[in-house]
Amino acid sequence: MTIVTKPAKASSIFGMEGYCVWDPSLVTDATGAHHLFFSRWPVAKGFEAWVTHSEVCRASAETPLGPFRFEEVVLPPRPGHWDGDVTHNPSVRRFGDRYYLYYNGNRGNGEWWDHRNHQRIGLAVADCPQGPWERFDAPLLDVTPGAWDAKVTTNPSCTATPDGRFLLVYKGVGDRNPGPQYGPVLHGVAFADSPTGPFVKHPTPLFAAAGADFPGEDPFVWHQDGRYRVLLKDQGTFYSPSERAIVQFESPDGLDWRLSAPAVVQERQVLHEDGRREAIHRLERPFLYGPDGAAEVFLCGIKPRADGPESQIVALAVSTNS
Question: Distance between CA 5 and CA 301 in Å, rounded?
Fold first, then answer.
């Protein structure tokens, strides 16, 4: 399936004064209103403070292309819990009549690597996007000692399967390499009979690239036209010649994945309505929105410049063909 993004409208770019914003995820409620879940953290702390100061928030809009208005902090700190200090990487989905907010959380001593290595995948559940959101005392998907994800689980994305189950794609960090960075950093898949789990991991990691300890990140998974599909950020040129582009994989069963043709969905640039083509330093965290699995809007986080922490979220209309 080919996904083509259209030019960005000024009203479709969302930012917040004093904050970095990232991790867009969009859902519609029963009234037709649109809710953007995202991460934010103080811009004064720098861009890398996502791992120590992030919190999951919600904005709203009348259309899936915005403009978006900030509404509330959804998952604030809760000291003493596994996700007591930080919530990040929200990925919201509606299954049936309930809303499921997958995210990663952590706790730590204030040091960057300590927080990063405490990342685990969590879940919050609500009857509507405005909450209240029920959080749980344990991670939804923890690490597995001795496995490829022995140190960290993060970057969750979930979709319903045609047979009524649920598939979760996620990023994990192993312990083969020395700390505190550890690694390699790869992806896996897990299945459950319910969106709340328990999720059973498949033992073999996905999207590996020869000679790469960290080839990709930020998966978004969905099912369309009889196949599972994943958008993934290339960490270099491991999947295509276009450096750090968003690429697409596909699979008949959620286990056997191959690059789509064409592979590249979005390069590190944004075409604006006025014809201006803006080069972007970082373009990450892809999310596709659309009713009944039909892609209508591509959302991502953008950090325009390398020499500043400022970031935004952009929503782009898309066209598709099989």
Answer: 15
Question: Per-residue pLDDT tens for 127-169?
Answer: 999 999 999 999 999 999 999 999 999 999 999 999 999 999 9
Rounded to an integer, what distance in angstroms lies between the CA atom of residue 207 and that of residue 224?
19
For residue 21, what are the contacts with CB-CB under 8 A and spacing of at least 6?
A: 14, 15, 38, 39, 40, 301, 311, 312, 313
Distance CA(219)–CA(297), nearest Å, equals 16
The alpha carbons of the chain give a radius of gyration, in whole angstroms, of: 18
Residue 114 has pLDDT above 70, yes or no: yes
Burial classification of residue 275, based on how many CB atoms lie within 10 Å of its CB (0-12 exposed, 13-18 middle, 19 or more buried): exposed
Cα–Cα distance, 59 to 313 (Å, whole number): 12
Tokens of 253: 């069963």
Asked whether residue 292 carries a pLDDT value surpassing 90, the answer given is no
Task: Provide long-range contacts, Cβ within 8 A and 24+ apart, for 57-63.
Answer: 58/129, 58/130, 59/14, 59/35, 60/33, 60/34, 60/35, 60/36, 61/33, 61/34, 61/36, 62/33, 62/34, 63/34
Tell me how crowded residue 274 is: count the other CB atoms within 10 A of its CB: 8
Question: Which residue's structure tokens are 């904005």?
Answer: 59
Determine the pLDDT at residue 247: 98
Per-residue pLDDT reduced to its tens digit, 171-206: 999 999 999 999 999 999 999 999 999 999 999 999
Outline where 54-193 has alpha helix (H): 112-116
Q: In the chain, what percentage of residues exceed pLDDT 70?
A: 99
Q: In angstroms, rounded to a whole number, what is the distance separating the alpha carbons of residues 285 and 21?
A: 11
Question: pTM above the 0.85 mark?
Answer: yes
In angstroms, the CA 145 to CA 241 distance is 35
